[in-house]
Amino acid sequence: MKLLLDFFPILLFFAAFKLWGIYTATAVAIAATVLQIAFIRLRHGKVEPMQWLSLGVIVLFGGATLLAQSETFIKWKPTVLYWLMGAALWIGPWLLQKNFIRSLMGAQIQLPDAIWHRLNMAWASFFTAMGALNLWIAYHFDTDTWVSFKLFGGIGLMLAFIVAQALYLSRHLQDQPAPPRTEDAQP
Question: Tens digit of pLDDT for each residue in 28-56?
Fold first, then answer.
């Protein structure tokens, strides 16, 4: 359910683009993201900072696309979002002494400090590269190809990166002690 909710705006953007074009798709993406954030707020009571950032970026760049009637702005939106996330991951350890990937995943897995650092830098590099790749696709291919890349290529590369990361992490996971086993006591 959460995965569908996360991809809800991009799926609607893709469908609206195929049916009605880039400007309608942009308006649909803005509305879908607003609805997504409202749903998360109502259901969970809290919206994560990255979700607020995503909303702000889609409203800003989507709004500029609609006002200027220029698809350039919406094509820059993924890059801006990727680069903001990448910048936060690059800057976090040095400026704030905070590893944001560890903050997100540290409750689920135990890793040595050096591996947390590599993981954080890998995600920062991935987001930086995805932003550059988005611009390359946007400026070297037609809008239809860019929209298809945004859905299939972007999600596909993200899934491939996550699988590669999981394989890497599996070699470094620290064993966690098993909870004590309680035997049924017979009176």
Answer: 999 999 999 999 999 999 999 999 999 99
Report in angstroms the alpha-carbon separations of 49 from 80, 143, 146.
16, 30, 27
Give Cα separations from 178 to 19, 56, 87, 95 (angstroms).
Answer: 53, 43, 38, 37
> Comparing 18-27, 68-77, 92-101, 170-179, which segment has the lowest mean pLDDT?
170-179
